Amino acid sequence: MKAFTTHTGVAGPMDRANVDTDMIIPKQFLKSIKRSGFGKNCFDELRYLDQGLPDQSCEGRPLNKDFPLNFERYKGASILLTRENFGCGSSREHAPWALEDYGFRAIIAPSYADIFYNNSFKNGLLPVILDEKIVDQLFEEMYAVEGYELTVDLEKCQVITPTGEVFAFELDEFRRHCLLNGLDDIGLTLEDADAIHAYEKKLKEQSPWLFNAIR
Amino acid sequence: MTAKTLYDKLWDAHLVKQRDDGSALIYIDRHIVHEVTSPQAFEGLRLANRKPWRVDSVLATPDHNVPTTVTERASGVDGIADPVSKIQVQTLDDNCDSFGITEFKINDNRQGIVHVVGPESGACLPGMTVVCGDSHTATNGALGALAHGIGTSEVEHVLATQCLVAKKMNNMLVKVDGKLGKGVTPKDVVLAIIAKIGTAGGNGCAIEFGGQVFRDMSMEGRMTVCNMAIEAGARAGMVAVDDTTIEYVKNRDFAPKGDDWDAAVDVWRDLVSDEGAHFDKVVEIDGAQILPQVSWGTSPEMVVSVLDAVPNPEEESDPVKKTGMERALEYMGLSAGQKITDIHVDRVFIGSCTNSRIEDMRAAAAVVKGRQKANSVKEAIVVPGSGLVKAQAEAEGLDEIFTAAGIQWREPGCSMCLAMNADKLGEGEHCASTSNRNFEGRQGYGGRTHLVSPEMAAAAAIAGHFVDVREF
Description:
The complex is a heterodimer of chains A (215) and B (472).
Chain A: E1 6-14, H1 21-24, H2 44-47, E2 79-82, H3 94-102, E3 106-109, H4 114-121, E4 126-129, H5 132-144, E5 149-153, E6 158-160, E7 166-168, H6 173-181, H7 185-190, H8 193-206
Chain B: H1 6-14, E1 15-18, E2 24-27, E3 30-33, H2 39-47, E4 58-60, H3 70-74, H4 83-99, E5 102-103, H5 114-121, E6 129-132, E7 146-149, H6 152-161, E8 163-166, E9 170-177, H7 186-197, E10 205-210, H8 212-216, H9 219-227, E11 236-238, H10 243-249, H11 258-268, E12 281-286, E13 293-295, E14 303-305, H12 319-332, E15 347-350, H13 358-368, E16 379-382, H14 387-395, H15 398-404, E17 408-409, E18 430-433, E19 448-451, H16 454-463
Parallel strand pairs in B: 3-4, 3-6, 4-5, 6-7, 9-10, 9-12, 10-11, 15-16, 15-18, 16-17, 18-19
Antiparallel strand pairs in B: 1-2, 2-8, 13-14
Helix pairs in contact in B: 2-6, 7-9, 13-15, 13-16
């Protein structure tokens, strides 16, 4: 997994609450059996004026000029600023894959849907939670200043604005540790293989029906 | 001993290891797999040269991409017209074959929507931990199981280790007491709950649905409710075990038999929240007040009763919510104050992991019987949740009731719930749908979804617009 320590980049807006994973990556692109290449279809229905198809080149598709992430000033944005309950709906990991492939390294929002939040960490994408009032302030500053850049520092758990204002954020130590070091959590879990075997043995004695073969 | 909630009990029973950093390893009893969220996980296993920890814990079936017309289904995988969908279903078959995983393939009569197949086959049982790369896995919580959706990285993790790295969620109780009125269904109950607590109301929580309404509810009804826990933000929803649960599980294909059955029932009887157990959050709703529900917007919390009108954003004080409502009205092509019963429907979809079980088929057929689909409705389709549901419905003659009314009877799959196959809405079309999400574009590019019960969808198909099914 890709590690995340600190990142500085242009912030871009997705200024609505309850952005669902169908919006982040529409279902027709979920037919892919790969885990890369979803960036060009990230926010497809908002970003383009036509309907996107799988395996289609997006060069020359008509862009929606009213969609903020298409504005010149947000080109190359790598930090997504958004509202509450981001990533609700389907469990598709294609959503963080698409955001990451688009070029986002971090998201800042007051809250996230649980499954999306969890999935992001597995893909080197840091979902930062800040208080709603702070998010409001960041939106205002971003709209006011072209090329508005934020720094997200995972070591110190801080978001730093261009004027040097610092906002602390919190997250689970386990997630922070894995992301900072880009750890493969399957490898980590397998270090506990003995504990899993022991649990399984006990379970098999107590509830043998759980091990009935399904054929 | 401290009083425990049902969720506490399920969590404690599956705890393999509590780590110092606050995370825990949770053992997974049943892993259900479908074609959309698994290919990258199998690929990951191969790349790391890993094998599934316990293949006999995994059950797979294709559902999202499968076509639902008889002609396309006739030749199995080869009959899938969309080449990209075909590759995905073929990939699931290949992965299951090469890793030795049991799969109900496309034309196996046990194939169907994962969340219908799991409980129906007895593969998912009370007291189990159940995961699947699909957010509607919470459906299985109706059995008194801890069931939730996971991402593809976690699918790979569970395949490789039989465990999930998790953090304990908060306990939330949604209590609905009283008696439901005539024509009010489990779908109306869960939509009313989401309307009340919002799509983020259950974030960070496992919801237990308690109270008289759920005690009186059938297992299939409980599944409809738990299915949509995720639409209230909760990864997991569950209902305590009672006689209804035990009766439902008895004699299912993979359910324990003989002495094992007796021993299992003894264990399952304890799968209830103890008297006085602590819930971090409690929401109470009077079941008698719930009316048939219809969603008007683009989020499952944008729901009103069939007697209401489309709400006015001007009356919303929260500016973010207000803009959300305005955007939803524009997308849906509706105006504030418009009566719900004045909304005309272009298509009707009865199916999905929320409402495609035999009771749903029966309920819809009872409304349709002896009537005709309105001419203004371009297409109405009924998609049973599995091959077994389909066979049962046909044995009862339900298919004939639908086809006589001009409503199509299809082959099992996810179908128009998320439109990954050919069943989809056209731009601007309104759909009375028994599915679970009314997000923009969910059922087709530019499509407009209204979430309702099977009875309400069936009535809309006949009337051509929403009607109060209680007076229909």
